[in-house]
Amino acid sequence: MMKGHRFFQRNYLFLIGFIVFIFCYPMVSKSADAIGKVVWVNGLAKATGLNGIPRSLERRSPIYEKDTILTTKDSMIQFVFNDNTLLTLRGDTTLTLDQYSYHPNGSSSTEKNFMSLIKGGFRTVTGLISKRNPDNYQVTTPVATIGVRGTDYTVFYEKKSGLELQIISGTIAVSNAAGNILLSQNLGPAFAHVASVEKPPVKQSTPPAELKTLLPTTTPVTSSGTGSPTGTAPSSNSSSSSNGSASSSSSNSTTNASTSGSTNISGSTNTISTSTDTAPAASAPKSTTPIGSFCIQ
Q1: What is the biggest distance separating any 2 CA atoms in the chain, rounded to whole angstroms?
Q2: Which of 75, 192, 235, 237 is least crowded, fewest Cβ atoms below 10 Å from its Cβ?
Q3: What is the DSSP letter of 75?
């Protein structure tokens, strides 16, 4: 009798554990779904998830919600989110993918893309989430917050110098506790600076040194089966402007034109369209890191 009772206890606990697993497994699987894929890597880049274990990133590597992406000095990485947001990180950058939710066949009201820029910089061409639900796109930085609406912009942040920004197309709102500004190609200077969270954003007519080179938004045409592209990823110096001004450069125009249309990442379900999101040729941002927040409209 006693043995039967113990047998029942063991099996009862096993049954309870199995039921909990069955109900929880879909949630675990859902949280582990990739939110995007790496397009190319130039140098070294790693991602660290909630488990705290870093993993090396290469072409077609998946990225996940809660990942913290790190690039080493002189490295770059470009990845595309499921909503076709294209993002290029410069070297020595740390970016956390705080929250991401995209429903291509469902309601857009719960879609979101929230990121935190810890240091370094990036350039991004925003995708469907910011276009369909602009209030649910946000980049948080130590000194400001950024929101977008179908925009191409670049930022760079360094603790000692603050936040630098450039708008390439569209409009961004840069705000912190001290003030806010709208940055647009149609509203005067295309550059802005935020010295600290206690100081308001200020427009600038000339690019700072960190933004004199425009990060690429296009993808290499050739690739190997795995790992980094066999063709060299666009160099961070490929679109330097002569005189450090915001004048257009022919090399940048050529690079952008080379992948006009749709570029498919082999082995990926994402298709990157660069024909409508190509940034106007301009002397551009090389790195980006925000101090505060930006809102792109």
Answers
A1: 91
A2: 237
A3: -
Task: Determine contact, residues 103/120, Cβ cutoff 8 Å.
Answer: no
Amino acid at 12: Y
Backbone region of residue 227 per phi and psi (left: phi > 0; alpha: psi in -120 to 50; beta: other values): left
Q: List the structure tokens of 37.
A: 């894929």
Q: Which residue has the tokens 């080379």?
A: 258
d(CA 169, CA 268) in angstroms, rounded, equals 28
DSSP three-state, residue 14: helix
∠ Cα 124 127 129 (to 5°):
120
Residues in the chain: 297
Q: Could you give the CA distance from residue 155 to residue 146 in angstroms, rounded to a whole number?
A: 10
Nearest to 152, CA basis, from 97, 107, 203, 215:
215
Q: Which amino acid is at 207?
A: P
Quick: pLDDT tens for 15-48: 555 554 444 444 333 446 999 999 999 999 999 9
**Cα 239 from Cα 216, distance rounded (Å):** 8
- How many C-alpha atoms does 146 have within 13 Å on its Cβ side? 40
Model pLDDT for residues 172-181, shown as the tens digit of each residue: 888 999 999 8
Measure the CA–CA gap between 217 and 264, rounded to whole angstroms: 14
